[in-house]
Amino acid sequence: MKYLLFYFLFNTLSHYEGNTPKVLSENDIHHVQCYNYTIKNGEVLKDSFLMVERRFNAEGHPLEISIYEKDGSVRSLYEYAYKQDSILMERKTYRGNRDSLVEIHEPIYNKKGQRTGSHNAHADGAPKLLNTATKYNRKGQVKKTIWREKGKSILQESYTYRLDGKLMTVQTKQKRADNFKIYYNHEGQRTHVYQLANKRKYLIQKLDYNEKGQLSETHSHTYRKMYIIGVGGNYILKKGDKISRTITYHSNGTIKEEQEYINKKLFAVKRYFYE
Prior knowledge:
By secondary structure, this protein is mostly beta strands. It is built from 2 helices and 20 strands. The chain has an 18-stranded antiparallel barrel. A hairpin with a 5-residue loop joins β3 (62-68) and β4.
C-alpha cells in the first residue's frame, strides 16, 4: 500500500483546489488562506483554524505552501523557485516552519523545455532513491512517466489522447499495489477514477463540473477499509463508505467554500480568503 498512498498524494498535490494559475494571476492574488471550520451536530460553528496557507508569484504559481496543525504549529512547508516565473527549478520540503530541510526536488528539462524527469535529494545532498523519468510521443505529448527506486521501475503512468490533442486517459502500472485508470472529458477535465484490483474495475471517484467548467462536486467510494491521516485529525473509512464534496465559487472564479460529507453527513467545511 506504500505506493498507492504515494500515488494519491502526488495526484492531490498536482491538482491544487481548482484555483488555477490563470484565475489567480488575472485577479492579482498572491496570498490564499484556507480555514477549516468546526462541525457540531451538523451545524457549522464560527470556530475555525488555519489549515493551509499559500503564497504565489505574479504568474499564479506557488512560492510557498504551509500546512498547519490544529494548534497553529506548522506541520510542513514547501518552498518553490522558478526560472522566468513559471518553469519550476527547485522545490524544498521542510519539516515544521523551516525547522529542518527534508528534501530537495529538482526537475530535469531537455533542450525543447520539456520536463524529462526529476532528481530528488535528502537535505545532506545524498541522492534519494526515488526519481522520475518522462517520455514524449512525436507530437510532444507526455507518453509515459516512470518512478524508479534503486534503478528499478516501481510505478508507471501511461497517457492517451483524443484526436484534438486533449488528454483522454491515464493508467498506472505497479506491482506492489492496486492500479488506477483515470478518464477525462472532451475539455481535458478529469471525470472518473477507477481502481483496478482483483481483476475487477471499481469506480472510486466521479467528478462533476458546472456550466463555467469549474469543478462543482466530487463523489468517492471506498472498497476497503482505509485509514486517513488528515490535517486536524485522523479517521477511518469503512468499506462501502461514500465521500462527497461540493464546491462554490466567487464571481471572479476563485473558490469560496468546500463542504465534505461522509455518508451524507457533513464532515468538514473549508473556506478560502484571498489577498
